[in-house]
Amino acid sequence: FLLTRNAMDPHSDAQDVPRCDLCETAIVHNYCDFCHVNLCTSCIGKHISDGYDKHKIVPFQERRSTLIYPKCGIHQNKTCELQCKDCNISVCSTCTASNRHKGHNFVEVTEVYNEKKEIIKKDTKELENLFSPTYEEIARDLEKQLANLDGGYEKLTTTLSKQGEQWHRDIDFVINKMKSEIDEIKVKHRDILRKHLDEIKQIQSLIKQTFLALRKIEKSTDISSTNEYSSKIREFRKFPPKVQVTLPTFIPKPIDRKQLYSWYGQITPLSISTKENELSLNQPNTSARDLLDKPEHVATIQTGYLNLCSVSCLNEDKIWASGTAKDINCFNIKGVLLQTVKTAFGMIPHDIAIDSDGNLLYAFWTVSIVKNGQTEVLVTMQGWAPSNLCVTSTGDILVTVFSDDGTQSKVVRYSGSSEKQSIQYDRDGKPLYSGNARTKYITENRNQDICVADFEAGAVVVVNKDGELRWRYSGHPSVTKNKPFKPRGITRDSQRHILTTDLYNNCIHILNQDGQFLRYIDNCDLQDPFGLCVDDNDNLFVCECTKGNVKKIKYLR
């Protein structure tokens, strides 16, 4: 194989030594880090003869060590060495002085490059060491189930056939028993007929004897025998009853096949159980990320809402936002409007959420989902109305609801349109949530805890997946945060942190999964923080209610 390959490939010899891409014969000594071309010493001059000043010739051992800066799309012959944090685009030095970027914050693109490289390195490690082996294990398990499929169904049909054989034996037993009963009835029938026949024959014999005696007397002239005759005709006039014994009949019962099917047995339906993978519930140490000492405001999206209430996204490519308006809008990180959804009947949505497929859900008097541009009502309620909602890791929908009279609140879990769980009281029968129609944003943590920001109660209320109270958080003592703690939005990240907005103190509280305060985010000039969410990459997006802005904040290393 090696000889065949070498004969066809001029870039390889017996030791597979790299060859020059230009002459294809000489051994490579250098490399153009801009064009990604192997070069021998003799071909360097030829390669750079086009006069293009971007060629970067380095020793072959140092290849791919030169960073290639993007060209500015506005100013020709300029390279972008800076990144605009507000617009999240690469810019050149001339761009920074333009009105478009006036007052914006900039960082070197190499800083962003190095951060992304670390993320890529981490993601690569996770893919190689965690995701790939886990999915291989899942695939092996499914292949094993497929391999055992025929054998399992063969056992099932064998059991079914054995039941049929038993039924045949039982039916034969019943038939034979009935045949024996018929034979017994037949014997009784014969005995009855024979008894009556014997009685009739006795009478017949007496008649014959009497007839012969009469014939004799009739021919006789003897006075004595004639005068002594006593008539027996009266005895014979009383005929015996005619015996008619009816044959027994078999009355077959109609066969009800449905009932027969139920009597025969039952085939249970397929039971599909989905066990939560340890991968999502218990994040490995390799994924651990620390909080930044100083969170960074990365970008701002101007939504145009007068009162911005909710934000939801899976990544920064599609960021959905809603407020006190009939439209729900989708933006990218640059603030470009991508899509608008008009709510049913022109209602103002209470809250929005995005499922794992990227479909939009919103709540008003019902819970609706938007798929492929079509709106479908998922949940309708009687006596209750939805307030806020979220989508769980298993695809269920958690909804905080309030009674029509505004005196009760609870959390309801839905699977599609079906109610699966209702959470309202603690073990002592006391309400878990304040009884009113005020907003109660909700999220599910990675450990499946259900977390509610109860604005009126001034508390974050957390129950486990079974609805049992785990803890309450009522704020953290602070000299500078002296206004009442009134949580609005709530979300979680990959590290099981819980983040909630503190509306009146213009900050965000970060808690661990057990309700312990970790730190504030209070350095990003937040004003009236309301709804918030964390995307799949742990980027934080926060609504500034009165400004109508969504701010992207980096708070994890």
UniProtKB/TrEMBL annotation:
Residues 15-60, 72-109 form the B box-type domain. It holds the Pfam family zf-B_box. One of its GO terms (molecular function) is zinc ion binding. Residues 139-195 form a coiled coil. Keywords: Coiled coil, Metal-binding, Zinc, Zinc-finger. The keyword Coiled coil applies. This is B box-type domain-containing protein.
